[in-house]
Amino acid sequence: MARILDPLPRPAQLPAASTRRTAPAPPPCRVISASSTPFHALCCHGETTTKAFAVPRRKAIALILSGCVFSELASRYLASAQSSVVFREYIDTFDGYSFKYPQNWIQVRGAGADIFFRDPYVLDENLSVEMSSPSSSNYKSVEDLGPPEEAGKKVLRQYLTEFMSTRLGVRRESNIISTSSRVADDGRKYYQVEVNIKSYANNNELAVMPEDRVVRLEWDRRYLSVLGVENNQLYELRLQTPESVFVDEENDLRQVMDSFRVNKVSV
Where exactly are the structural domains of the chain? Predict the structure, then answer.
């Protein structure tokens, strides 16, 4: 609803003796609501009306809402594209195990494990499978390792033994993040162990003065192991990934872990 202001008081009259003519009084100011004239602004002193560039309220709200919807859809599309990893299944009928892995990972031969795959872009991210010797082991169940907590300690000790270094000034920090057990759809029980290991080293190993030996972080990794028993052997699926990458790829790595199965080998 338009609102009209009271007219301005007229200027005081000059004395009659003065021959000076007074300027005509300016027209009264008027305030006009945006609903009546959305694109115009009227000046108070009779100046020419100017047009201001404006967008109608409904159009502005529609633009804002459409922008929000587009942004939300774009975010969902990107998240879906990032999480839509295609997996392949690897089956070893001779040794008796299988698992799924991201299809873009490549197999590396001669890595020392029974099988070894790695990410072609994040070289520090890989998976492998190792087994106990069939001639020197006689496992009946994964529970032969004790409870999951005890198995986790054994897994961590094994990792630290493998990562022992003869370099001066190298220090490792480790901790067990979680241990658990589950029964898969094949009816077998599996243990899952997650550990974190950090490696520190001096930037100048041969420096004499302590201030010249600055300790720096070499790497910070998450190690995930799945343990299962079949054919009187202990099988272990190992996943290694940098902690900085684990946050983004955790779901994919857990799918690999959940897919690991040990199978009876026919003699």
Answer: 20-84, 86-262
